[in-house]
Automatic annotation (TrEMBL):
Keyword entries, A-Z: DNA replication, DNA-binding, DNA-directed RNA polymerase, Magnesium, Metal-binding, Nucleotidyltransferase, Primosome, Transcription, Transferase, Zinc, Zinc-finger
Residues of the Toprim domain: 247-330
Cofactor note: Binds 1 zinc ion per monomer.
Name listed for the protein in its UniProt record: DNA primase
GO cellular component: cytoplasm; DNA-directed RNA polymerase complex; primosome complex
Family to which the UniProt record says this protein belongs: Belongs to the DnaG primase family.
Gene Ontology process terms (BP): DNA replication, synthesis of primer
Positions of CHC2-type zinc fingers: 38-62
PROSITE patterns on file: TOPRIM
A Pfam family matched in the record: Zn_ribbon_DnaG
Cofactors (names): Zn(2+)
Gene encoding the protein: dnaG
Reactions catalysed according to its record: ssDNA + n NTP = ssDNA/pppN(pN)n-1 hybrid + (n-1) diphosphate
Function: RNA polymerase that catalyzes the synthesis of short RNA molecules used as primers for DNA polymerase during DNA replication.
């Protein structure tokens, strides 16, 4: 799935990054840029910078960076397409339908139509098995309606829907087998749970059998509009019910649990689609909640599942609370038996998941020093997963208390350098400063000026590998008449570029900087090839060849002089 580069250009031109981010972060002007507390890691001194002029943000603490689109993706947990749409809507920009691959819109509408039909069918269904199932699982008409639950039974003909779509779209939906030119619906005779995107579109289905046969659930496969790793069931609704000082989201294991929680007033509740929680899930949860409460069965399997999810949260510097239900219960059965007050009461027993784990480990090794030492090493590794240094300290303190180990010696075993590493990765070499300044200045100059600037140098002129790559793409984009700020989203150079654009500039005027640094780059390049030619000359035995090389060197020297003259002119301005 792809939105055309020109649509993205329009969005980036019109979305003011300063206004956008100011809605979420308090920013203060500092020099040419704005500065505030990073929304992506916790900090006390602001290291999050925004450049209005260049349309980018960068955090020197955690390395988060990008443009308006990346900000919306990171902040709201949207994918690229949804972030573009969010901005388009906000700023009243039309993304032309034709510019998105047409089948993607058709995929959405195919899912929508199937969902609507299936819901209508379940509400009208005379099928005894369906009625029994709904009764047994206590799915009321209201809940069916709210959650877009459906059913496509044997007698239902999907032909009226399918005839509107190309074969390509039907196959890409992954919902059908094709046999002898006709399609059969993979989830027929199953209760259908509609899976929604964050913006509320139907993007997939999960189908449950009516009896106990296997497989119990069949899900849509991964498609252009659906990825199981990123989807939390009901998040599109739950995110609207997290208000309050501490935004809270419950995470449960199944669809029925989510639905029952909703019915009993816990609307801020989500679940995965039968998978373990992924790092993507944890990142999305962190965006929408200040507190996550995992609800698990109190049996051995439930406790293990809770512990298994610890690492994905630690990697996001976000530790959930966990609440175990009585053995053999899930939220669905618990609420039906005991009601919502019982759950509110039980919630008083929730525990910080990492603390719980530390205590469990401590208990396991009792007075065995060998075990203690081994587990301490394991725990240190877990603490090292956390990026946020304050959070690291908090848990180290906890471990030192529980294990009666000196805090400072414990701290030595933990890697505090992650955040620093991100900074060092792109630390600039003094030698190449003219290249950095040149590239950086390009991003605030008008297009006609750019075209004039780039007409006589190519990527070979650059020494720094990243600058080579960026420059090559800049030229490519300009020739295609695409706004170069799109490059901030580039998977290869995007991070480096947005960081570069926010480094302190050595010059106030971007055109002056571009010109000055371009001449420096040209001179460096000419010096380099002059040296190469001179080496070649030294090796050459052939007089004719020597003459040729000498004349080439002469040309290079003349060019170099020309650039040195121009450089002097600019410098004297
Ligand atoms: Zn940060």
């Amino acid at each position: 799935m792809k939105i055309s580069e020109s649509s993205i250009s329009t969005i980036l031109e019109q979305a003011n990054i300063l206004d956008l981010i100011s809605e979420y972060v308090e920013l203060k002007k500092t020099g040419k840029n704005y500065r505030g507390l990073c929304p992506f890691h916790s900090e006390k001194t602001p290291s999050f910078y925004v450049s209005e002029e260049k349309g980018v943000f960068h955090c020197f603490g955690c390395g988060a960076s990008g443009n308006a689109i990346s900000f919306v993706m990171k902040y709201h947990g949207y994918d690229f397409i949804d972030a573009v749409k969010f901005l388009a809507e906000k700023y009243g920009i039309n993304i032309e339908m034709g510019e998105i691959k047409p089948y993607v819109n058709e995929l959405y509408s195919l899912h929508e139509e199937i969902g609507v039909l299936a819901k209508k069918e379940i509400l009208l269904s005379k099928d005894k098995r369906v009625k029994e199932f709904l009764q047994k699982r206590k799915l009321s008409l209201d809940l069916i309606d709210e959650f877009d639950i459906g059913f496509i039974g044997d007698g239902i003909n999907l032909e009226t829907v399918l005839k509107k779509y190309d074969r390509d779209v039907i196959i890409k939906s992954g919902l059908f087998y094709e046999r002898y030119g006709s399609y059969s619906f993979k989830l027929r005779n199953r209760i259908l749970f509609s899976i929604h995107s964050l913006t509320g579109k139907t993007i997939a289905f999960s189908g449950r059998v009516l009896d106990d046969s296997l497989p119990k659930y069949i899900n849509s496969p991964e498609t252009d509009i659906f990825s199981k790793r990123k989807i939390l069931y009901n998040l599109n609704r739950a995110k609207n019910y997290t208000e309050g000082e501490v935004r809270k989201i419950y995470v449960v294991e199944g669809y029925f649990d989510v639905i029952r929680m909703w019915e009993y007033g816990f609307r801020n509740c989500v679940s995965t689609m039968g998978t373990s929680l992924t790092e993507e899930h944890a990142a999305i949860l962190k965006r929408y909640a200040d507190e996550v409460v995992l609800l698990f069965d109190g049996d051995e399997a439930g406790r293990k599942a809770a512990i298994r999810s610890l690492d994905v949260f630690l990697k996001n510097s976000f530790v959930p609370n966990v609440l175990f239900l009585p053995k053999g219960e899930d939220p669905d059965t618990f609420l039906l038996k005991n009601g919502s007050d019982a759950l509110i009461n039980l919630e008083k027993n929730k525990k910080d998941l990492f603390k719980l784990f530390i205590n469990k480990v401590a208990k396991r090794c009792k007075d065995n020093y060998n075990l203690k030492s081994k587990y301490l090493a394991d725990l240190s590794k877990k603490v090292s997963l956390i990026r946020d240094n304050y959070l690291k300290e908090i848990y180290l303190k906890e471990i030192s208390d529980i294990f009666h180990i000196d805090y400072d010696s414990l701290k030595k075993g933990v890697d505090f350098s992650l955040a620093k590493k991100i900074l060092n990765r792109s630390e600039r070499k003094v030698k190449y400063i003219c290249e950095y300044d040149f590239i950086s200045s390009l991003f605030s100059l008008p297009e006609d000026v750019l075209l004039e600037l780039i007409n006589d140098i190519n990527e070979d002129y650059f020494f720094d590998e990243n600058m080579k790559k960026i420059y090559k793409k800049v030229v490519e984009f300009l020739n295609k008449n695409v706004n170069i700020s799109v490059l901030v989203n580039d998977p290869e150079v995007g991070d480096f570029l947005s960081e570069l654009l926010l480094k302190e500039q050595n010059y106030e005027d971007d055109y002056y900087s571009a010109l000055l640094n371009k001449y420096k780059i040209c001179i460096n390049y000419l010096k380099k090839i002059k040296k190469e030619k001179q080496q070649l000359l030294g090796k050459s035995k052939d007089n004719h060849e020597k003459m040729k090389i000498l004349s080439e060197i002469n040309d290079i020297i003349n060019k170099q002089k020309e650039y040195e003259k121009r450089l002097l002119e600019v410098q004297s301005l």
